[in-house]
Structure formats: C-alpha cells, structure tokens
Amino acid sequence: MATQLAVDSHARYFAICLRGLPHQMTSLDAARMTFVQLCLVGLAALGKLDEVCSAEEKKQMIEWIYAQQVLSDGTELSAAYCGFRGGSLFGPHDLCDYVPANSANVAGTYSALCGLLLLGDDLSRVDRPAIVDALRCLQQDSGCFAPHPSTTERDPRFIYCACAISAILDDWSGVDKDAAVKYIVSCCNPDGGMTQAPFQESHGGHLYCCVASLALMGRLDAIPDRQRTLRWALQRQNCGYQGRVNKPADSCYSFWVGAAVELLGGHDLVDAGAVSAFLVQCETRFGGIAKFPDEFPDPLHAALGIVGFTFCNPDGFPRMSPTLLLPESLVERLDIKAARRA
After folding, report:
1. Would you report the helix, strand and coil content of the chain in percent, each value rounded to 5?
2. Contact partners, residue 231, CB within 8 Å, separation at least 6
3. How far apart (Å, rounded) are the C-alpha atoms in residues 56 and 119?
4. Among 15, 135, 179, 325, whose Cα sits 20 to 30 Å from the Cα of 285?
5. Do 87 and 32 contact (CB within 8 A), yes or no?
6. Residue 164 phi/psi, 5° resolution?
7. What is the CA radius of gyration of the chain?
8. Buried (b) or exposed (e) across 163-201, using 16+ Cβ within 10 A?
9. Would you give per-residue pLDDT tens digits along the chain (342 residues)?
10. In angstroms, rounded to a whole number, what is the distance separating the alpha carbons of residues 290 and 211?
11. How many other CB atoms are found less than 10 A from the CB of residue 301?
12. Count of C-beta atoms within a 10 Å radius of residue 2
C-alpha cells in the first residue's frame, strides 16, 4: 500500500475551505477562526502555504482576524472579555451590543495568534496587556481555565490555550503556573492517561492538552509516572491512533496522541508505517482527510492528520512543533523559547 500523501489534492482542499466551507459545516460558523487556523496549519505542514495564498489574500485574512479582536474599554468588567472572537458570526462589534455574544474566548485567541503568525504578521496590533489580563480573569481557583466569562465549561483544553497564548506573547503573568500544574496532575489517571477532570476516563485529546501545557511551562517533570504515560499513549496505536481504549482509530489522534508521544520522547517507538498507511486510507479522492476511511473530510481531521503524518515522515515535510502546531522554523525565528523541542 502506498504511504505517500496526495499533497497537491490536499493543498487544493485547504484553499477551497479558506474561501468557503461546505454547507455541512454551517453550524460551526462561530468557530471559523479555528478553521482558518487549521487550513493554514495544513498548508504549512505540506509546505504549500506561500504557493496557495497570495500576498493579497494573506493581507485580507490578517485584516479579518484583527476585525475579530475585542479590545478593552478600560473597565474591570470588560477585562475577561478581551482577546479574539471565534468568528464574525455576529457582525461588526458596533452592531452587537450584547456583551456575551461579542466576547472573545481563549480558543479563538489562540487560533487568531497562530493564524496571524502563519500569515506573516508581526502581532504589532495585538492588545497584549488586555489578553494577559483576560487570562488572569479566566483562571479558576482550581487552576483550570474557563474559555470565556459566565460559563461552567472548564478543562485542560483551555489550560493549553492559555499556555500557548502566553508562550506566543512571551508573557506568563496571566497564568498561575503552579495552580495549573496542580490541576493537570489531578487529571492523571493510574493507567497513565490523562482526563478532562479528576477521576474521569483517560482521553487522547486531553492527554495532549495536559502534556503540551506542561511542556510549555517547563514542567514535564510534574507527570507522576512519565514512562507509564508514554506507554498509555503508545498503546493507543491500532494501525492509526485511537483516542480512548476500545475505540476505532481516528485520523485526528495521529496529532493529539502522536504529538504527546513526541513530547514524551517516544518517537522511535511508533509504528510510523502503520500510522502513515491508516492516514492514507482516510484520504478522499477530492482532497482532505476524513475521520475514518470512506467518510467526508473536514479541516480539523485533514490538518491534524497531515501534521501527524509529518511526525511519522519527518524528512519529507516541514518540521512542525508538537507544542504549538506551528512550523518549527517559525518557532525558532520568533524565538518562542517555551515551544522549542528539548
């Protein structure tokens, strides 16, 4: 079985998605910022970003991203709402006076910063102090983070976003690292996996968020049993990677679990050929990678599947940072110290 990616087809797929998503994804319009990031990540991992996106298109995307920035009005009430929105669903800021609907969230802010960096922006228009203040407001007493104000939702996904934002901005004053590490350790299960909250089922996505957060904070040593955690991650290989015990392989976990394996030092223990072959099975004839073979593709599984493929085939593609989902060349050029490989 061939294990070469259809690079040109995937590049065309991401180009199409950047210009308009299929109708099946209408319900996800509020997360458009994340899809922009994922398409750019996919193109960068393929080495096709500059070829597909012209200078004018990059400029237009940069302006769209900045149009989603929620700026501080100088009041304590607004502090937690600052950063970047997930998209332009609610239109220009001055047409939406309902604050919760016009709020930034940490996932949107993380995606926006990554998108800007991938497009070559220097972040000079980012309201850095407001974003750092927002992180400070959103960290909970438990050490975990909420994505935005007025929600009970909180888990390691948002710890990761807060850590990635802090690393990119090179300002950790909005994160209580000790409290975040304590929460992550409380999510470590006896089987070596990591969870959404203490005493829940081990999950590959939360494993990544916890491990990458610790790596960005320089605290991988806080994992109670690093070898057991690496073993749990390696045992998720089932041709491709599965996200949980007794689940089928899913293309996106080639990144979520695969990146955790990279960060834990297990690269040489991966069956790279099997993972690569599974991802090729998930390719579609019109480009993109699906969750499972013979299904419809989407930007998340396509981008993460391609990055996972590059981990298994590092010589044929640009090297991607497992901590920030950015090209390592960009991480090094910007001197993002916390995201460098050990």
Report:
1. 55, 5, 40
2. 192
3. 11
4. 325
5. yes
6. -65, -45
7. 19
8. bbbbbbbeebebbbbebbbebbbebbbeebbbbbeeeee
9. 457 899 999 999 999 999 988 788 888 888 999 999 999 999 999 999 999 999 999 999 999 999 999 998 776 667 889 999 999 887 787 777 777 778 899 999 999 999 999 999 999 999 999 999 999 999 999 999 999 998 999 999 999 999 999 999 999 999 999 999 999 999 999 999 999 999 999 999 999 999 999 999 999 999 999 999 999 999 999 999 999 999 999 999 999 999 999 999 999 999 999 999 999 999 999 899 999 999 999 999 999 999 999 999 999 899 999 999 999 999 998 887 666 665
10. 25
11. 26
12. 8
Q: Tell me the C-alpha distance between 194 and 187, whole Å.
A: 5
What tokens does 47 get?
């080495």
CA–CA distance from 88 to each of 96, 121, 332 (Å)? 11, 20, 32
Query: Residue written as tokens 């070596």?
Result: 192
Residue 23 and residue 203: Cα distance in Å, rounded? 30
Residue 92 is classified by DSSP as S
Q: Is 174 left (phi over 0), alpha (psi -120 to 50) or beta?
A: alpha
Question: How far apart, in whole angstroms, are the C-alpha atoms of residue 193 and residue 226?
Answer: 10
